Each structure stands twice: as C-alpha cells, then as structure tokens.
Amino acid sequence: MFNTMMAHLSLVGSQLLELFVISAPWLLLGFFMAACIKAFVKTETLYRYLGGTGFGVSVKAALIGAPLPLCSCGVVPAALGLRASGASKNATVSFLVATPETGVDSVSFTYALMGPIMAIVRPIAAIFSAIVSGLLVGKAEQHAAQVERTDHKKAGGSCCSSQKTVPQPPNYRQKLQEGLRFAFGKMLRDVVVWLMLGLLVAALVQSYLPEDFFTALGDGFLSMLLMAVIGIPMYVCATGSTPIAAGFLLSGLSPGAVLVFMLLGPASNIGTLMIVKNELGARAVTAYLIGITLSAFTFGFLLNYLTAYFGWDFMSALQTHDHAMTTWWEWVAALVLAMVIAKALFDKVLPAKQAH
Questions:
Q1: Helix crossing, 221-231 with 282-310: angle to 10°?
Q2: Are 238 and 271 in contact (CB under 8 A)?
Q3: Beta strands in the chain (DSSP E)
Q4: Does an H or E element contain 190, and which?
C-alpha cells in the first residue's frame, strides 16, 4: 500500500513539476508586465475616462480593465472605487467583467499551455463579454422604475491652508520598483494559492483522466453548460483557471467549452455576485450574469466552429508541452519563481501569525 501511495505521489508530483517549470518563464513575464502597468498607468486617468453611459464608455472600461493586473478578489474594491469616483453602472460592470477574465499574466500563461490561438481568442472574448454585460446593465437601468442619482461632492481647498512641502514626484526607476513590489508582492500573494491549486488540479487531471474522458460530451451545448455550472460559483482567478482548463482540454473537452470555463470562472463567483447586487442592484446582477453567460456561450460555439473549419489543432500545443524536454532557462525561471512564491507565502502567513 505504501509503495502504491508513493507511486501515485510520484506520478502527480512529476506532472506538477513539469507544469510549473514550463509555466515559470511566462508567469514571470506576465507579472513583470503587470508591474509596468501598475507603475506607469495612473489611476486618475481611469476615473476620468469612465464617466457617462453608452457604448463608448463600456468599450473604454473593457479595454482599460482587460490588461490590468487584478484577480477576482482584487477587482471588486477597484470597481467600487471607480463607481464611487463617478463611473456609471455600465462602465463599472464592464470593468468588473473584463479585468478578472483576462490580463497580461493570464494571456502569457495561456500561450504557454494552450498555444497562440487560445491566447488570442481569450482576451477578445473577455472584452466582448465585458462590453455586452455593461450595455445590458445600462439597458436595465433605463427601464428601472426609479433612476438612482448620486451627488458627488468635491472637497474644496482652503485659501488659508498652511504651506506644505510638495513631495518630489517619483522618477521612472522608483515607479518601476514600486510596480515590481506590487506585482511580486501583493498581487502574487492574492493569486498564489489559486495558481498552485490550479496547477495541482491540472496535474491530477493529466495523471488520472483518460484523454477521451470528455469526448462523449461532444462540442455542443451540454459540454458548455457543464463548464458554466462548474465555473459560475467557482472562486478562481484567470491565471489559476488556465492550467485547469488545459487539463480539461487534454482530456477531450472541446476548445469552446474550455473557453466558457475560462471566462465564467474568474468573472463570477458567489461573493462577487452578492457584492454586485448590494452595490449596483438586483437588475444589475441579473444583467451581469446574462451578459457574461451569453457571451461565453457565443464565443464557445464560434471557437468550436472555427476550429472545425480551419482545422486548428489545440492538442499539438498541449502534447508538445506534455512531452517536450524542459530547457535550462525554464529551470532557472522556475527556481526564481519558486523563491518569489516562497517569499510571498511567507509574507502572507507571517502577518496572520502576528495577529494572534
């Protein structure tokens, strides 16, 4: 029995290590790009462009939110901050959908595990989903019996205020350092548990699920419905959902159904839906759910159709990573990422111990 247990641990462990090593360079690249965005994109700029209603505002909110380095847990306070700063409900929802569904880190990770086609389709589908959801919320608000009116008061400065030394604005190097501290600090701490859990689930799927496990579901509505049922209540970030989705794809699930999971998993969970309901209203949460679900299914069917029409081969990318020899630079990247993750976990656990 002990030997059997060790054999299972060895099988899963080897799959987990291989996934981690292959993914490491792309994850480091993604986090570095997130650091640059954090360093050089001003929050005030986001607030200024997201006022008003209509199609243009939803598009801007989706395009602004898509590359930002925020996961499912981090996007909610950011979206509420936008709302409090004067962003409309449809802009808030578009931002709330686009931001967790994709990002520079998850796109690079998707490319590493599933190839260029899925890495291109995923952010396009996320932006489309965000725009549709925002527009539906805007329409729901137009038909509401009562229109919410919020007065935004600006604090005026006093002409009698005492003079204060104006701090020197940070230079580019300082901004980049601050961005790196955010990306490899707070951001990594927020996603590291889900990232490692996603890799573990992917390792289990690749170890034990037969390659034709999901084939019986086909590429139609049933497989997408199953992924929607799994994804909507699930609390997982875009990066963490990627290896799980790769495992599903390797086990015979259609690319369209995999895309449905990668869109709905990060964009919807019970906590997010309750916050949307409390802050934006029941109509908004209904429109939110309808928008992301219809968009995910639409792109799921479209991806399956295009895959069949053009003969796209997602399995070759997966099998290449599954059987390819890892290179020395991937091992170096994996070592660096492991040290960064260890520090992030240490920083995450230490404050909790000090609190007790």
A1: 140
A2: no
A3: none
A4: helix 188-208
CB atoms within 10 A of CB 3: 7
Residue 143 and residue 54: Cα distance in Å, rounded? 14
Distance between CA atoms of 10 and 62, rounded to whole angstroms? Answer: 43
Residue pair 96/279 in contact (Cβ under 8 Å)? The answer is no
Q: Which residue in this structure is represented by tokens 């520079």?
A: 104
Beta carbons within 8 Å of 197's beta carbon, 6+ residues apart: 236, 240
DSSP labels for 48-111? Answer: HHS-S-SHHHHHHHHHHHTTS---HHHHHHHHHHHHHTT--HHHHHHHHHHHHH--HHHHHHHH
Q: How far apart are CA 117 and CA 111, in angstroms?
A: 8
Print pLDDT tens along the chain (356 aa). Answer: 778 888 888 888 888 888 788 778 877 877 887 788 778 877 676 667 776 667 888 898 899 888 876 666 667 667 766 776 677 888 888 988 998 888 887 888 888 888 899 999 999 999 999 999 999 988 876 665 444 444 444 444 444 444 555 567 778 888 889 888 888 888 788 777 777 877 787 778 777 777 666 767 777 888 999 889 888 877 677 777 888 888 888 888 899 999 999 999 888 867 677 767 777 788 888 888 999 999 999 999 999 999 999 988 887 766 555 545 568 888 998 999 999 988 888 887 766 566 55
Q: At 86, phi and psi to the nearest 5?
A: 110, 0
Which residue has tokens 């997966």?
Answer: 318
Length of the chain, please? 356
- How much of the chain is helix, strand and coil, in % rounded to 5? 80, 0, 20
Alpha-carbon span 237 to 318, nearest angstrom: 21
